[in-house]
Amino acid sequence: MTNVFLGRAHDVENPGARTADGLSEWEIAEKINEEAHAILKKSGIKAVRLEKTLQDRIDGINEFLGHATSPTIAVETHCNWSPVPTQSGFFAIAYAGSPAANALASSIITELWRVLIGVRNLGVNQVDGRRRWIRTPKEHAGKRLGFIMDVGCPSVIIECCYLSNPTEAAWITAEDNRRVIGDAVGRGILGYLKSEATADGNDNRA
To answer: Which of 67, 129, 162, 169 is most buried by a 10 A CB count?
Structure first.
């Protein structure tokens, strides 16, 4: 059985972007992860929720991989921010050299597309070792993409919306809507796991 790690964006000391009323990206990601974890648990998938700092999350996965005997994947949920308040949409970030990471990202994006009706889907953004940053470097001292660049398993960052967009920020502020996203993320992971089981193959690099 595939091992699944769920990481939430940021941490209590670095809560990330905020909505106009002060709700942090860290708090939003926590509720999304909670729901995604519940979906996986109902389907008999044992998923580990990662907390603490980005480096702690990376180290935790890599330590586990040192003795893992079955495939492992990791997903971390975020919300984006832009200086342009009209910027909209959701997308995934995956390691360009990993077919498994790209398949995982695509599966989650497909499920998000079913529930985020009318929201622009920006697709899967593929990165490699030469491109550790998306747009402007602003946090984590060079580790913006550390979650997918520095771990040894297929891993994906999901950017669920733009907190700088008033409409999207207001929508995701509602707890029920965060559950909707978490449900879609969980179903996307399940869809990937089912397709991998059918294909009976998995690479082992993020």
So the answer is: 162
